[in-house]
Specification:
Layout (H helix, E strand, L loop, with lengths): L8 H15 L3 E2 L9 E2 L1 H11 L5 H23 L4 H25 L8 H27 L6 H81 L3 H35 L4 E2 H18 L3 E8 L4 E2 L2 H18 L3 E11 L2 E8 L32 H11 L3 E7 L4 E9 H4 L4
Parallel strand pairs: 4-6
Antiparallel strand pairs: 1-2, 3-5, 6-7, 7-9, 8-9
Length: about 425
């Protein structure tokens, strides 16, 4: 595999020189004769210096100036009867222009990103004028040409401003496009991180609960072993002791896995997020889920309270679970409403759908582990741990969750109420 081009700066410098030389042949002569040519070469050179600031400017200017001198000399040798010395004398001033231009640009090289685009254009115009002056001075010394009149200088300054502002404007447009691409990639990675963190949080939460269950099972099993031993049930007591040891080993393995996952969560999930960002991500991820299921679902968000919280991963886990359930509850087409508001010292989250609602007899059992109303095409029941999971997380926040039918929407409305102080980031 070849190395990337940016690892070969000398190749880049040569490319800058070649393209600048070719662009310089597209020119206009605003004055009588061939005293001074205004071409695209200087604009291309300025753009390259702005885009490739990792290159040594002075060396780039020297290589470009020498290449342009040789390039134009070669063109004139094929088209005129002048000697090599005469041709090089005519074009050496162009070489001086690029060298001086690069040298002056190297002075502001480290401050380019700090300049406002209008200021950058003005500075580049000044550098262009100074470089033009050195080019004219070289022509005066080598060819003996007369100096410009005042009106010609004014015109030259206007051309320099127009040329440099066009180039810096193009550079700014390219920079903005690059920033947008970077931001888009960062948003994509953030979405991946949030989805990963939300799913991982749920796994860690239930693994921690399982370890607690295993701990209790170990104690109960050991207590049974002691009773059997006291009753001189040796065969059964040894069997129970063996089971106790196996449960204990499973618990230790689970603890090691939990420790690793906890470190991973702590590394991946940092900072804070506003409630509006949590809702935005919830809608975006579940819109994809609805599309995957082939359902036409409209999501509506209403937010009257927005503050930053460090507990955004648990909240995402809650809202994603409830919203995914709402997506599944809608047959083909419908609407899901997500609302967030504050009431006194509580923050309230509601997820409402236009599905079939929840039957009265199911409400008391809905949050129990193992309860489900979902069956696949073969009649196999779902695991039914989702809403019990939600309820357990809500309890960690010292909140509560309720479910009722929503007549205005036609489906169910899940309402989570959590103390604001448990969520809001301290200033």
């Amino acid at each position: 595999m070849g190395q990337p081009l940016n690892r070969h700066p000398y190749i880049q410098i040569l490319l800058v020189a070649v393209i600048t030389a070719i662009a310089g042949e597209f020119k206009i002569n605003p004055f009588d004769g061939d005293i001074f040519r205004i071409g695209l070469g200087s604009s291309a050179f300025l753009l390259f210096l702005l885009l490739f600031r990792h290159l040594p400017f002075l060396l780039t200017g020297v290589v470009t100036g020498v290449f342009i001198l040789l390039f134009r000399t070669g063109l004139d040798l094929a088209a005129t009867d002048l000697t090599v010395q005469d041709i090089m004398a005519r074009h050496c001033s162009a070489m001086v222009y690029y060298i001086v231009f690069a040298a002056l640009m190297s002075v502001i090289k480290g401050r380019v990103d700090r300049f406002h685009p209008l200021v950058l254009g003005a500075v580049a115009a000044v550098i262009d004028l100074l470089s033009n002056e050195m080019e004219l001075l070289t022509r005066l010394l080598v060819l003996g040409t007369t100096s410009f009149r005042l009106n010609e200088w004014t015109y030259l300054m206007a051309i320099a401003m127009l040329r440099t502002y066009f180039t810096t404007g193009l550079y700014s447009s390219i920079s903005v496009s690059q920033l947008r691409l970077v931001q888009k990639e960062q948003n994509r990675r953030m979405e991946q991180m949030l989805g990963f963190g939300s799913g991982l949080y749920g796994e860690v939460f239930y693994l921690r609960k399982s370890i607690g269950t295993l701990e209790q099972a170990t104690l109960d099993s050991y207590e049974l072993y002691r009773r059997l031993k006291d009753d001189e049930e040796d065969a059964h007591s040894r069997r129970v002791l063996h089971i106790t040891q196996q449960i204990h080993e499973v618990k230790k393995d689970s603890q090691r896995i939990l420790a690793g996952l906890t470190k991973l969560v702590d590394r991946e999930v940092t900072g804070d997020m506003p409630l509006s960002g949590i809702l935005r991500f919830t809608v975006k991820s579940n819109q994809k889920y609805a599309d995957m299921l082939g359902k036409d679902i409209t999501f509506t968000r209403q937010l009257t309270s927005d503050y930053a919280t460090v507990s955004y991963i648990p909240l995402l886990t809650l809202l994603n679970n409830l919203t995914a359930n709402a997506v599944e509850a809608i047959k083909d087409k419908g609407t899901i409403y997500l609302n967030v508001y504050e009431k006194e010292d509580m923050t309230v989250f509601t997820v409402t759908d236009s599905g079939g609602g929840v039957k009265e007899r199911d409400r008391d059992l809905l949050f129990e582990p193992g309860f489900t109303t979902k069956f696949d095409e073969e009649g196999v029941a779902a695991t039914g741990i989702g809403l019990s999971h939600v309820k357990d997380i809500v309890r960690l926040f010292e909140g509560e969750i309720t479910v009722n039918n929503a007549p205005h929407a036609g489906g169910a409305m899940f309402k989570i109420t959590v103390p604001t102080k448990k969520l809001q980031k301290e200033e």
